[in-house]
Write a structure and sequence with these properties.
The protein is of the alpha/beta class. The protein is built from six helices and five strands. The longest helix has 13 residues. The protein is globular, with a radius of gyration of 14 Å.
């Protein structure tokens, strides 16, 4: 069993364009034995991008995200103070605050981060590139 934290774009690809990911990754994400998590930080990122008009969705995030998470068996991962504080001790490999928070959550909660962002591989967190 794998405990997988989905980067924001990976969760969106899982729903809208799974063909962007390797077949082995698609199989791991479809395996109901694995635990899939979507961070509250990713929901926040989606909401911000939606509000700015940079992320079109078929419905507002509050209507779009929860039913798809439930349908696909994706669990919600809250952001706690320990996650937020852990960001301060991370090296500056990446400037994106959402990605840095996902790295912190991965480290604290012992999750494998599935991402297409190669920069995240520079951290000590376990990461899997989904599109290579």
């Amino acid at each position: 069993m794998l405990r997988i934290l989905l980067d924001t774009h990976v969760w969106l690809w899982m729903i809208e364009s799974p063909g962007r990911m390797r077949e082995s990754v698609r199989n791991e994400l479809a395996d109901r034995e694995n635990e899939l998590y979507l961070s509250a930080a990713s929901c926040w990122e989606i909401a911000i991008k939606y509000r700015l008009g940079r992320l079109p969705l078929p419905a507002p995030p509050g209507e779009f995200i929860p039913p798809r998470m439930e349908r696909d068996g994706v669990r919600s991962l809250p952001v706690g103070q320990y996650h937020a504080l852990r960001v301060a001790s991370l090296p500056d490999h990446h400037k994106d605050p959402f990605d840095r928070l996902l790295i912190a959550q991965s480290l604290i909660d012992n999750l494998v981060l599935y991402t297409a962002d190669e920069q995240l591989l520079r951290y000590a967190a376990p990461c899997v590139l989904v599109d290579r």
